Amino acid sequence: MRKKFFVHAGLLSALLLSLALTVSAQTSGKNEAANAANDQGWLQVFPGMKQTITGADRQQVQIARETRHELAMLPYYSIFDNLKYRVDGSTVTLGGQVITLGLKRDAETAVKGVEGVTKVVNQIEELPPFSDDQRIREAVARRIFSFGSLSRYGWEAAPSIHIIVKSGHVTLEGVVDNESDKNAAGIQANGVPGIFSVQNNLQVAKR
Question: What is the pLDDT of residue 74?
Answer without folding.
Answer: 94
